[in-house]
Amino acid sequence: MTRGKEKSDKCFNDINNAIYIALKSVQSVIINDKHCFEMYGFDILIDANLKSWLLEVNASPSLTTTTEVDRKLKMQLLQDTFEIVVTPDWASSESKHGANNCKEKNLGYYTLIIDEATQDDKKKPGAKKGGMLPPLWK
Amino acid sequence: MLDWERIYKGIIFEFNKKMMNSMKLKWRSDFDKQVVIENFDKRGWTKAQGADDWNIFWATKESVRMIFNPETGHRLGELQLLNHFPNHYELTRKDLMCKNIKRYRKDLEKENHPLAEKDETGNYKYLDIIPMTFILPGDYAIFVEEFRRNPNATWIMKPSCKSQGQGIFLVSKLNQLKKWATSSKLPFQSLSLKENYVISRYVDNPLLVGGKKFDLRIYVLVTCYRPLRVYLYHQGFTRFCNEKYTPDFAELDNMYIHLTNVAIQKHAVRI
Lengths: 138, 271
Prior knowledge:
The structure holds two protein chains of two kinds. By secondary structure, chain A is of the alpha+beta class.
């Protein structure tokens, strides 16, 4: 892909947007048990116009490893996942014991892309003027 | 000037870390994958002996259904973490995902939300994240209407609940659907809910790399839905088709061109 930074940024934003819309569309129906977390595999196809299409979401993305590179990626992926969901104070009495109490910034290869808890309620997604996407993708 | 609060927090953090290391969490997994178990071992966590004696459970979808079965009325304990939400299928079953996205779109449109904005051509700027999709058999009549509007389009049929590319085929003529319906030995309209299919407009202009179609597998971690908290993983991979892409009708049955699933492609022979 040699179409310049602007295009690749747009492509990346487009993917983030798809993830956001998909999760928002189930936000009100998912039973939000605080003991649960989920690592999804999003399958995304990019078309010739660099528009991304969400094909499907997997709840149990394959953790079968085929090559050494693949194994390393999945080991790291799980390690970073546990680092986030089981924080150092997870079991301590003042903790809420949920999967959602990550205060530390030890995110590994993860970035926090949506955090409604710290979002200004008045700032509606998409309201940012001139912005391509919700203000979530700073 | 000393920042006492930061120092205090630092001490607490280190203390908690030590606690954590000495804290032997108990894990359970029925998802028999080496990488999962290796990760637990690396953390010094031990395998739970009893069925309920776990702190963290990496479970299959079937186990999650058992755990949250309303008849058992089981609730997770304070110190338990599970890797699925009780009704994760609202997002991961193809028909339910489609239904939820359509409903969300309608809701946003009704409240005139900025996300429901449309571009010059009348398409949603943000909400068109999946190709046009219908759920069969329920939406059959409106699908046929749409099909006739664009008779040259190709569609892709997928069973709602299967993964790894199973049961998928491409459709370019209506009689292919009729043939499929009769071969399933049931009258088309009476297929049970379990056998729901989705039919989507096939994206026939994929971006190609080296002439081959590919898709991206992106990992996303959700730790809470209300309020929503989402992490995106910055390492993922691309899955390539083994054969060069062609939208040619003669090749519509060749899944090595159209499907990127590893389960399909691992059977492909490299020449």
